[in-house]
Amino acid sequence: MNFPILTAIMLAPVVGLLFILLIPEREELTIKITAAVATFVSLVLAIVAYVLYDNGRGGLQFLQDVSWVPSFGINYSVGVDGMSMPMVLLTAIVIFTGVFASWDMTKRVKEFFIFLLMLVTGVFGVFISRDLFFFYLFFEVAVIPMYLLIGIWGSTRKEYAAMKLTLYLLVGSAFALIGIIATFLYAAQQLGHATFDIQTLAAVKYDLGFQKFVFFLMLIGFGVLVPIWPLHLWSPDGHVAAPTAVSMLHAGVLMKLGAYGLIRVGVFLFPEGAKYWAPLIAVLCIVNVVYGAMIAMVQKDLKFVIGYSSVSHMGYVLLGIAALNTLSLNGAVAQMFAHGIMTALFFALVGNVYHKAHTREIARFGGLAHQMPRVAAGFLIGGLASLGLPGLNNFVAEFLIFIGSFTRDQSLLGGLLSYRILSILAISGIVITATYVLRVVKNTFFGPRKPEWDHLEDARGVEMVPIVVLVATLILFGLLPSLQIDMINSGVAPLVAKIEAAKAIGGIF
Amino acid sequence: MASLQLLTVEILTAALGLGLLALGLLVPQKDRRGIGYVAAAGLAGIMGVALSMRDASGVVLQGYVIDPFGTYFKVLFLAAALLAAVCSFEYVEKMGFNQGEYYALLVLATLGMMILASSGELISLYLGLELMTIAFCILAAYRLDDAKSAEAGIKYVLLGAMSSAILLYGLSLVYGAGGSTVIKEIARAVAAGGASPALILGTIFILAGFAFKVTAVPFHMWSPDVYEGAPTPVTAFLSVASKAAGFAALVRVFFGALPDLHNFWVQLFIALAVLTMVLGNLVAIPQTNIKRLLAYSSISQAGYLLLGVVSFSVLGIGAIMYYAMLYVFGNMGAFMAATAFSNADGSDEIRDYAGLARRSPLVAAVMLFSLLSLAGIPPMAGFVGKLYLFMAIISRGYIWLAILGILMSMVSVYYYLQVAKAMYLGNPPEESQPVRVTPGLQIAMIVSLLILFILGIYPTPLTNYAMNSAVAFFMP
Predict the structure, then answer these.
(1) Domain chopping of chain B, boundaries
(2) Chain A contact for B161 (CB, 8 A cutoff)
(3) Most CB within 10 Å of its CB: which of A451, A458, B172, B241?
């Protein structure tokens, strides 16, 4: 099959964007439908690619190569493996539902969808790139539309949050860029020719000092986006300020760019550097999990709860990366997918409530299940996924991460700590999560009916699209994890092989 | 006669400049609008000629070198002049007098830059520099009714003269030490004779002289005032083309005549680059006037370009050339948007840009994407240019310098976004009109925006052109 399906997935939003440019501003419905069609095309193609992906063969598939800047070894080369294919699907699902979550947008609609589609093009691009130059290029493309989207259509201190987010991400990516250039030059010297191809770069032997240095740069660069504690400060503010679709895309997909970059570029190219820094990641991620969950517990604003819960949940992804074995890495990728869907669901629902009630203060709500039963049901399912209920996607992912990290037999700090202890601490995060999620569900949706909210209408029509699609995805992959894990495993296997082949070196502490 | 053919571009430019001057006197006052069109068409034609000669190389009268490196910069100057001319149509018409002289001076300044970029000999280099400087002095002071413009002119005259004097002093010391004014001869003498104190001193003076022209800190003081006071199209032209010309000449002198001293002067350039990047970017943050903001941003851009000099490599030169070219479109784009806005509203204050995205999506988009290109955000062309520059210095082991440079360009995003914030997040004032943009300016803006996008996404053609020219420069 020679149809460049991945490029088509990425370019469908661009085509939609160009059409929208030509549509007059007042034809808001046409604009929305165009955006929906464009993202639907991406979604269908992503599903087709997902189904056609051959797990047995594994490796990179749907390859396409175009020579771009030959003198610098830059190629437009795309392809997906078992790690990036789920991410592409995730992005397609989240943006498609995100468009429907913004259906009631009335302010500067044309510009909104232009920037939204621009943003998602960058995200698709990162996940399908096999060339480090394009990887970084797409990575950065996502930042500026994000600034405008939050700055114009946001709420709650939007200008502050937008600028903070932009600067954090850009400074982070500056470190990643240095690492990328250094890698490129090192490899060009070793290989004798210039290349940005990730597979070729991975075959180069980097010496240990270089690996430690560059992996650290990558850790900062991509860690900001994950976000790794203490570089997470931009994320709750950003989530809260962003308009619904952007929050969904942001927490659902953009944070995964960081984790994906850390695995794809950090761990894959520099396994020894990863081994060296893994203990640091492991300790910081526990702070993420526990501290994030604790902070989420005391929030008064619904969106802040979700924002901090994302910080907490991404800690599990980091734990999976830090443990560096098959199970944990499988879990990390699966958790990226599961958390993306779950958090997008949350933000879609909170956005729905906020749009109608004009407040997100938990204390003012109560008994909303009477007025909005569908929203309440969606929220409850999201909440149950969040606390890791078996049968939903998140359980599978978290289970794998915990088993993976628990079985890793390595003591840290001269025996004071070990991965086992860290795993136990991380599992305790689930308990805290259960506490705050159930409390939020109870205080917001259950309890006696409050007449002041009687005017709220339940979600219906197009508003149901995000809820149905996202909930269905959570349940599908929760009940049939093999649909997902087999694929992820085929992508993780070469990575683990590389880690095992790397020199056994001690961690930083 | 073969050698005169090599000078086709220069001869045509001189003819165009003088022709415009004559035309300005002949054409009646009310029909003078056409002069601008003639100038633009002439510049476009000459650019075509220059492009067709891009592989030509040869030496005219010992000291005048035609090579791909010089021709590349000539194309760059012509592109900048063309955009500046298009940008000037309405602006100059509003001033209402001496339109012929204005365009003639613009073209003559371009001629000066061409000579600067091509001279392989110190005297002709100085000649080109003066031709450029004097033309710019007049252009900067062109708004007779505006005290700031007069101030800009005077400042440029005084400081320009001072820097020229310093440069000339340095050149004379180098001549004394090298025994020739021809750059190749000097290089030979330096290689044979080693570094004498006079040569070192001369190098420092030359460096200071060029630092003025390219607005490197601490020799940048003139630029914000001049940029603010001069007519906007002139500022735009000054900020891109004269800087590029300065770099072209700088590269010729330092890489051509003094390569054996590079261990010494690279240190000086590192200091200049660090100061320029840090100060230019930090001082840009509090600016409230778009022209002053762009002035400081263009100071900081000189800092990035200096990184290419620091790397002392083919890649570095190619990176300078690539970056200088798209800097033309980035900066001219921003200035064209500023011109369009000031034509409509008569203001250069950033706060007056509030809600511009609603009043004129095109002007706002051109401003936004031009600034993003200057900041080096993909997919704009500026990113590729900065990537090459940082690659060049990292390949020489200056990782700390690259980290500083990249962090500083992230700082620059902050102040560029302040403009974006006003344009996109702000609300337009009550009873505001849509910003009217003349068709010529509109086309020029769209073209430069497209170039920024295309070169950002598909940088190959320009990369090859720049890198091949750089290689030709190193290995003639």
Answers:
(1) 262-476
(2) no
(3) B241
Which ranges of A129-197 does DSSP label H, i.e. alpha helix? 132-141, 143-153, 158-191
Chain B: closest CA distance from residue A152 (Å): 5
Question: What's the maximum distance between 2 C-alpha atoms anywhere in chain A?
Answer: 74
Distance between CA atoms of residues A52 and A75, nearest Å: 25
- The 3-state DSSP class for residue B443 equals helix
From CA A180, how far away is CA A197, in angstroms rounded?
11
Spatial distance between the Cα atoms of B48 and B378, rounded to a whole number of angstroms: 29
Distance CA(A239)–CA(A249), nearest Å, equals 10
A406 min Cα distance to partner chain B (Å): 38
Rounded Cα distance between A229 and A89, Å, is: 28
Phi and psi at A49, nearest 5°, equal -60, -40
- The angle subtended at Cα A265 by Cα A425 and Cα B315, nearest 5°, is 145
Q: Break chain A into its structural domains and give their ranges.
A: 5-501
B268 to chain A, closest Cα gap in Å: 24
- The ipTM, to two decimals, is 0.83
In chain B, what residues touch A68 (CB-CB under 8 Å)?
A: 458, 460
**What residues of B are in contact with residue A166 (Cβ under 8 Å)?**
413, 417
Chain A with chain B: Cβ pairs closer than 8 A: 76
Q: Which site among B398, B421, B423 would you substitute to test the A interface, given the most A Cβ atoms closer than 10 Å to its Cβ?
A: B421
Show pLDDT as tens, one digit a residue, over chain A (509 residues).
578 888 888 888 899 888 888 888 888 888 888 888 999 999 999 998 888 888 888 778 888 888 888 888 888 888 888 888 889 999 999 999 988 888 888 888 888 888 889 889 989 999 998 888 889 888 888 888 888 888 888 887 888 888 888 888 888 888 888 888 888 888 888 888 888 888 888 888 888 888 888 989 889 888 888 888 888 888 888 888 888 888 888 888 888 888 898 888 888 888 888 888 888 888 888 888 888 888 888 888 888 888 888 888 888 888 888 888 888 888 899 999 999 999 899 888 888 888 888 888 887 887 888 888 888 888 888 888 888 888 888 888 888 888 888 888 777 776 677 788 888 888 888 888 888 888 888 888 888 888 887 787 877 778 888 888 888 888 888 888 888 888 888 888 888 888 888 777 776 67
Q: Which residues of A touch B (CB under 8 A)?
A: 68-72, 111, 133, 136-138, 140-141, 143-144, 147-148, 151-152, 159, 163, 166-167, 170-171, 174-175, 177-178, 181-182, 184-185
Helix axes A5-22, A28-52, angle to 10 degrees: 180
Rounded distance between C-alpha atoms, residue A28 and residue A14, angstroms: 18
Nearest CA in chain B to A143: B377
Three-state SS for A107? coil
* Record: contact A171-B407, CB cut-off 8 A: yes
Of B100, B87, B80, B92, which Cα lies nearest the Cα of B38? B100
Cα distance from B379 to chain A (closest Cα, Å)? Answer: 6
Distance, in Å, from the CA atom of B297 to the CA atom of A85, rounded to the nearest integer, reads: 41
Task: Collect all residues with Cβ–Cβ distance below 8 Å to B361 and sequence separation of at least 6.
Answer: none
Residue in B377, B399, B424 nearest the CB of A140: B377
Residues of chain A found within 8 Å of residue B425, distances taken between Cβ atoms: 148, 151-152, 159
Contact call for residues B461 and B322 (beta carbons, < 8 A): no
Using a CB–CB cutoff of 8 Å, tell me whether B288 touches chain A.
no
Which residues of chain A neighbour B357 with C-beta distances below 8 Å?
A: 111
Pull the structure tokens for residue A373. Answer: 């039963």
Judge whether B385 and B322 are in contact, CB under 8 Å.
yes
For residues B226 and A487, give the distance between their C-alpha atoms in angstroms, rounded to a whole number. Answer: 62
